[in-house]
Design goal:
It comes from Dimargaris verticillata. This is Sulfhydryl oxidase. Its main location: mitochondrion. Keywords: Disulfide bond, FAD, Flavoprotein, Mitochondrion, Oxidoreductase. The protein is mostly helical. Among the domains are: 41 residues, no CATH class; 99 residues, Up-down Bundle (Four Helix Bundle (Hemerythrin (Met), subunit A)). It is built from six helices and no strands. The longest helix is centred in the last third of the chain and has 18 residues. The two termini are 38 Å apart. The relative contact order is 0.11.
Length: 202
Amino acid sequence: MGTAFPDPRSDGDAGCRVCTDFKSWTKKSHPKPGPKNQQSHSTSSQPHLGPEPKAQAAPPLESGRKDGTRRVVAELGTGVVMARADGSTVECPPDSEALGRSTWTFLHTMAAYYPNQPTVPQQQGMQIFLRQFAQVYPCGHCASHLRSEMKTDPPRVNSRADLSQWMCETHNKVNDLLGKKIFDCSKVDERWRDGPKDSTCD
């Protein structure tokens, strides 16, 4: 035993986004300032927030879709799930790009919550996981490329910072091959752990 990562909540990390739902995380990480007095309900002390938005009714079913699914996902209570800006829908099963986006989200988040000072069993566990992951990833040529990269540049599992940087650099190699934008690896904590100050994420 002893290979599991510690729960980020156990060390007083109230900003653990993956440990709770979006609405609760937002309240903890970006608390609203209290009212100037208990009798006033004015929002003047919160100019950057404004009044709480009212939940909107679910949009009508989109006509012409055989499966009857909705183009826009309504507010779910744990946060607002927004449709794509271009109005497109998510298709299933996922293609390599959709799978890749979800996979990188998982891998970056896993690295972001890796211990700062991992034990030897934790380091070994991460190395084993990444090796096995590169064997079973459903996209064959993607998995082959990852295995090749790991031979050239083995995962750096000595600390959370090292693993997060390695993950970012590895992802950027893929982005470069695909002609995509290179991510600034100095912002991995902001993107995958702490969240940007304005609560937005590209």
